[in-house]
Design a protein that fits this description.
This protein is mainly α. The chain is built from 4 helices and no strands. Helix 1 packs antiparallel against helix 2, helix 2 runs antiparallel to helix 3 and helix 3 packs antiparallel against helix 4. The two termini are about 25 Å apart.
């Protein structure tokens, strides 16, 4: 349970850092349009901090974390961080107006979202299997 709480804290801090980076980086470069940097903050706060806070509550009540769930959570971490890294790269490319293939960046971010979504479903199914009627 402590691991889940530590993950929540780390993602909370990363979310705050992501928000500050978005604000300061766009302000420094005089960028006023939409950029994917604006969603880094919410991805880390909601899919990181809040998700793991909820898992702490579920673990306290249902004791669902076992070796399989730990594997799913490892993939969840990989998916979330891959997604956010690609959002940051794409956002920096947008702000600096670099000539980079958007399709490649979107494809890798899509793979991150896919890993994230699949692992989230497996974690939720594991919680459901631990709930007794």
């Amino acid at each position: 349970m402590k691991r889940l709480m530590n993950a929540s804290i780390v993602y909370g801090v990363l979310g705050l850092i992501g928000g500050v980076f978005y604000r300061e980086f766009t302000k420094f470069n005089g960028f006023t349009d939409f950029t994917t940097l604006s969603v880094v903050h919410t991805h880390y706060l909601m899919l990181g901090m809040v998700f793991f806070l909820l898992l702490v509550l579920f673990e306290k009540n249902f004791h669902f974390v076992d070796t399989n769930v730990s594997k799913y959570l490892l993939f969840y971490h990989i998916g979330l961080n891959l997604t956010v890294v690609m959002l940051i790269i794409r956002g920096v490319v947008q702000v600096l107006s670099l000539d980079v293939s958007s399709a490649v960046l979107s494809g890798i971010a899509g793979i991150g979202h896919l890993i994230l979504g699949i692992s989230m479903v497996f974690v939720l199914i594991s919680i459901r299997n631990c709930i007794k009627d």
